[in-house]
Amino acid sequence: MKPYVLGIDIGGTNTVFGIVDARGNVIASSSIKTQKHNKFEDYLDELHTEASRLIDANDAQGKIQGIGIGAPNANYYDGTISNAVNLPWPSLPLAQLVSEKFGIPVAVTNDANAAALGEMTYGAARGMKDFIMITLGTGVGSGIVINGQVVYGHDGLAGELGHIIVKRNNGRLCGCGRTGCLETYCSATGVARTAREFLEARNEPSALRNMPVEDITSKDVYDAAINGDNLAKDIFNFTGTILGEAMADMTVFSSPEAFIIFGGLAKSGDLLLRPLKEAMDRNMLSMFKGKPKVILSELKEADAAVLGASALGWEAK
Amino acid sequence: MKPYVLGIDIGGTNTVFGIVDARGNVIASSSIKTQKHNKFEDYLDELHTEASRLIDANDAQGKIQGIGIGAPNANYYDGTISNAVNLPWPSLPLAQLVSEKFGIPVAVTNDANAAALGEMTYGAARGMKDFIMITLGTGVGSGIVINGQVVYGHDGLAGELGHIIVKRNNGRLCGCGRTGCLETYCSATGVARTAREFLEARNEPSALRNMPVEDITSKDVYDAAINGDNLAKDIFNFTGTILGEAMADMTVFSSPEAFIIFGGLAKSGDLLLRPLKEAMDRNMLSMFKGKPKVILSELKEADAAVLGASALGWEAK
């Protein structure tokens, strides 16, 4: 009998889940809307119904060894989520409730840690024991692996590198309530904020001036930069430089073999990576110079969240 | 037969070594001058002669199970030291040479990692699996423990938190060649530099004005502050604030149970710790607020370096 795991990625908008085999093949996947139900019980009912349908359709009844869940603010140690601002039910004992419903062991962690596990199990970090996963999405997430283990810390919540302070004074306001966090500059939202700042502070022409400033997204900045727009290219230089400086600081902590970059902004390629690598090298302590690699994720973005969560499913007991 | 280890701490000035039992009792210790010999062979001859004398005098022949060495820039993985600016022999295969000379297994690591091991084995971090040791001496060193293991990273050199950049622009020049490193502000030398800056930038009276500005040490600042000198107290506020801000950033990385503060400056007590804890709390990401403890080292400073190095001796093979 071929064993499977069920990977579940609970995002603010969608909950994606899939059946995954031991080689990292996503046998089948589906999704439901996370926000449809105010009561967690109703959400869990729908998730269980839809996942069971997927399991039946793929002849996987009785073959699911474990369930892995990636969710915001999920705690690996106690299986809870707490104060998850993007979810309708900010705090609850997630692992316990899902395990009782499915009758299958469940392990949970936050989405970026799940991505790191996925990368180590199936992706660019196979064979690596020391690496840092940086996820560039609406925010900046991270999953840190040291000695082949995800770093959960004393309370199960370690690895929040998006909230390193990169600008101590007059930094941008962050969703966390503080100012100057890395994610206010280097997330997709951060790129859009930089665009608005640069457009206001400068006079040079830019294709970005042709759209309402509040509507500009990181994708618009990317499109403009690819077409040679200098202001748009400068926005990526600014973003990559800040991220590279921060990564040089992260290196003195754990001396990783590689940084794996994942998420929408990673698709900007050299627009982001060239200034990033230059800043990282320029700011690197000499003993680490030239050592940490910077690698783009090898996971297909559509599958990545489910794969990452599923990798945790093998650990569930 | 009671087994012992030999702990050796190689500092820029002195090399201290001692025989330690399994309970962390320093049975006997002695020292030689590190800088006396330009050739490492001569230094090693003297170290071997003096250590053998100590071993014989304490009836410990044949009972030394391993030798642990703490030394600047020492690499746990390959046993080498490299580019150690404070030593007369900047690069060599230290573990191999000492092991051949003594006929005993040797393990090496840098001095701050050794201190963390000592604290975990014999000191304030007994029973802790996740903590960060911060050593405040001429520089700022660190030893990071995650999941009960010292973090060595991919290359064996991880844990250089003294070289996190705390001031990105116009920061102080660091011995590493870069500017703005934590250790340019929060080491004993950093405190003396702050004193010189504050005395020049301000007009208020201070007992520190009674001595030649280039001769002021962190001890002088401490003595003045204890006697109520406001400028001296401000120097500690400034120092503690920068260290507390940096420790809040370190927390998002590994979520430690505690920070253990060690070294000369740690003896300043609340002069340093009060502003440090306030800044750490003020800058802490809410999910970690109030969690990491700040604890002073429990190791006697005279014994600490030898104890830390000796803790590594039990791992040598």
Structural notes for this entry:
The structure is a homodimer of 317-residue chains. By secondary structure, chain A is α/β, with parallel strands linked by helices. The first copy, chain A, is 37% helix and 18% strand. A five-stranded mixed β-sheet of chain A has the order 3-2-1-4-5, sandwiched between helices. In chain A, β7 and β8 form a beta hairpin. In chain A, α5 (188-201) crosses α7 (230-254) and α7 packs across α8 (270-282). The longest helix of chain A has 25 residues, at 230-254. Chain A starts with a strand and ends with a helix. Chains A and B meet through α7 of A and α7 of B.
Low-confidence stretches of chain A: none
**What's the overall geometry of chain A?**
globular
| CA-atom Rg of chain A in angstroms | 20 Å
Give the topology string of chain A: H per helix, E per strand: EEEHEHEHEEEHHHHEHEH
> How much beta of chain A, percentage-wise?
15-25%
Number of strands of chain A: 10
Oligomer: homodimer
Give the spatial strand order of the biggest sheet of chain A: 3-2-1-4-5
What's the story with the biggest beta sheet of chain A?
5 strands, mixed
Number of helices of chain A: 9
Distance between the termini of chain A: 19 Å
Biggest interface reads: A-B, 46 and 46 residues
